[in-house]
Amino acid sequence: MRRLVRVIFLAVVFFIPDPASAAEEVSVPEILELGAELAGEEITVEGELVGDYGFRGDGSMWTQLNGDAYVDQPLREGGSPVGANIGIALRTPVELTGALDPPGGYRNRGPVVRVTGIWKYHDSTRPGESYLEVQSLTITEPGRQLGEEVNWTTFTFGALLLAAAGVVALLIRPED
Prior knowledge:
Layout: H1 2-15, E1 24-25, H2 28-33, E2 42-55, E3 60-66, E4 87-93, E5 108-109, E6 112-123, E7 129-141, E8 144-145, H3 152-171
Parallel strand pairs: 1-2, 4-7
Antiparallel strand pairs: 2-3, 2-6, 3-4, 5-8, 6-7
């Protein structure tokens, strides 16, 4: 009998999913592709907060979560232009946003976050908007300023072109 109780206990512990991990992990491109299929589902997604933080009177903050190649390799840090910026809207309770660094833009990389929430696809209560109603937010990487290195090859080539244009201008100058 004790053995049977142990087997049942182990089965319950190992085979019943943890409700805290019930959210399906998806990427931003998957959300955009499967939008209607994920409607009303609890999902977890990771990406960079970009654009602006729009605080509303209802206690929420709206922003954009990008999930493209530029999250890992910003252009200003040597990333290649490999496609469009892609993202989804987030509606987050203000109490979850206290420790956020500024959102990403040309000179900043926004915080990279992992968010879990309910995917609202063409929400009829918000004139058809699609967004993630955030329930939890974890910062996985803080935001930071982006540096920009001087491309010395381009700089040198430009300087040589200017010098050549100056020489040509002197050579073709009409005589007085």
